[in-house]
Write a structure and sequence with these properties.
The two termini are 50 Å apart. Helix content is 52%, strand content 8%. It is elongated, with a radius of gyration of 25 Å. Helix 2 packs antiparallel against helix 6. By secondary structure, it is an alpha+beta fold.
Length: 398
């Protein structure tokens, strides 16, 4: 069963259950490879995530004063490593809680914090661990984690695992133990890492899409986006200069746009990205300003969410993604965007209202925007219908 969504937040008293988290990794697996057929793929993923974790932990130890810059990365990498570990065990019918019992049993003077068996990540962690307080000891722990993970991959590659589930279980226990020790040394809660990993996966690949409330709900009607809008893109050439005009109901919206680049790339059609943002996300400070729909009834919202900085951030996102898209044929054959790209977009908008929108909505907004952008390029203009209730864009050629 999938995790209760209430358990995604740190202030909830109930800790994430080991086997419940493992069930989630099976549900959230998008590899398309079932059972042992995908074991190699998952083990490679574990190896890669451990490498990223080691790099983040090393930076944490080296740059103590800048720890806040690495803390989120360290927690995320722990969560990703846990996901691959739990998923690998699940593929061969091993319960994470059974592996956890063997993790703790091998350590001197450990208990399950008063519990007869380990049910949660919190039960596994030593709350007063000072064994790796020196730099040398800490580095030894990191090397141990790398070695155990490499040993697991070597066992798989050499065929020593084969159909020997006990050998695989032993190798997974070694990696699990090394992960727990590293988390102790880094003062990282595996419970929080697991929660945030679930939240991250749900934000990227939700079981049920929930669009969320409109950002301008409850504001005076003149400050709300219309739920249904029709725009016309027209390309014109005057005195050798080609530009695009955007109109709504026969009225110009904004200034005429050129590519503003020596080598033409049709960026003059880029207002389509703002239309995609408003259709899918319900957010576009740029379009809100152009349509004179700023939320002036609340000065702090008008100043911060609808102000110049928010507009610059949206324009920056559009330009940055355009450079990425231009190298990928404007996403002509793309059905899923790179996670790091979506994560960077979320970093761009952190602290603004649209930060509440999950990654999957950003992916829809970007891909839909480029679908219509390609049509505008092909037809050198056209009509675009924006439907905020349906979260859709519809193109019609002139």
């Amino acid at each position: 069963m999938p995790l209760n969504q209430a358990q995604l937040f740190e202030d909830v008293g109930d800790a994430v259950q080991l086997d419940e988290y493992q069930d989630f990794t099976a549900i959230s697996d998008r590899s398309g490879l079932l059972g042992t057929d995908g074991l190699g793929f998952v083990l490679l993923g574990l190896f890669g995530e451990v490498g990223s974790l080691l790099s983040a932990l090393k930076k944490k130890r080296r740059d103590k004063d800048a720890f806040i810059a690495y803390e989120a990365a360290v927690v995320e990498e722990f969560g990703d490593a846990l996901w691959y570990l739990a998923n690998a065990a699940n593929r061969v019918g091993l319960k994470l809680s059974d592996l956890a019992g063997r993790v703790v049993d091998s350590r001197v003077d450990w208990s399950y914090h008063g519990q007869p068996i380990a049910h949660t990540f919190a039960h596994l962690q030593n709350t007063s661990n000072y064994e790796a307080s020196t730099s040398t000891a800490f580095e030894t722990r990191l090397i141990e984690l790398a070695a155990k993970t490499g040993g697991l991959l070597d066992s798989y590659a050499s065929g020593r695992i084969g159909n020997n589930r006990d050998r695989l279980a032993a190798d997974l226990v070694e990696v699990f133990r090394a992960l727990v020790r590293a988390a102790d040394d880094a003062d990282i809660s595996l419970d929080i890492a697991a929660r945030q990993n679930v939240a991250k996966s749900e934000g990227r690949w939700p079981h049920k899409r929930v669009w969320g409330r409109s950002f301008d709900e409850g504001y005076p009607a003149p400050e709300q986006f219309l739920r249904h809008m029709v725009f016309d893109f027209s390309e014109r050439t005057v005195n050798g200069n080609t530009f695009v005009v955007l109109e709504m109901n026969g009225v110009y919206v904004g200034d005429i746009l050129t590519d503003n680049r020596l080598v033409e790339d049709d960026y003059r059609f880029h207002d389509i990205f703002h239309l995609a943002h408003v259709a899918v996300l319900g957010w576009s400070p740029t379009l809100r300003a152009l349509l004179k729909r700023k939320r002036k009834s609340k000065p702090e919202v008008d100043r911060n969410e609808d102000g110049a900085r928010a507009i610059l951030i949206e324009e920056g996102i559009s330009s940055w993604i355009f450079n990425h898209a231009s190298r990928a044929m404007f996403y002509r054959s793309t059905t899923s965007l790179d996670f790091d790209l979506l994560k960077s977009v979320r970093d761009f908008v952190q602290g603004y209202e649209v930060d509440a929108r999950p990654m999957w909505q950003w992916e829809v907004a970007i891909l839909e925007g480029y679908r219509v952008f390609r049509l505008l390029k092909e037809h050198r203009g056209g009509q675009v219908i924006v439907d905020l209730d349906e979260h859709s864009l519809t193109f019609k050629a002139h």
